[in-house]
């Protein structure tokens, strides 16, 4: 009980502190830049976390590199097309192509993908990006 009270007190102190010093949230999605796995794309928390289905550190919303080779390019586009208007749950590859996580690879995903197209790295993300994680597409 005492420990719980102390933890609560520390938590409250921390909350007050973070309100006193606003933390940057460039994309306004409610996740501060220092933790945001897509600092420039709005990808709010769902079920307490930001989706990153290939676990490489870049959130789905800013990760058009489905092949994990570091660039968002022609191969990724070919995979994207193969998933076009498919339910993302049908394959692991189409899950990463569903960049806004609505279980369908459609126009919103294309817009997010085009923002990434040509980029030399997924992100930017506050987390370290690890391209050695298999995506299910590579
Ligand atoms: Ca974000
Ligand atoms: Ca990712
Ligand atoms: Ca790629
Ligand atoms: Ca989608």
- Average pLDDT figure: 88
Number of domains: 1
> What is the makeup of the main sheet?
none
User: Which secondary-structure class do the elements indicate?
Assistant: mainly alpha
The small-molecule ligands in this entry are:
calcium ion
Order of helices and strands: HHHH
Helix content: 25-40%
> What share of residues are in beta strands?
under 5%
Q: Radius of gyration from the CA trace?
A: 17 Å
Give the oligomeric state.
single chain
Spatial gap, N to C terminus: 50 Å
Q: What is the helix tally?
A: 4
What is the number of beta strands?
Answer: 0
Q: Looking at the structure, what is the overall shape?
A: globular
Question: Which spans of ≥5 residues are poorly predicted at pLDDT below 50?
Answer: none
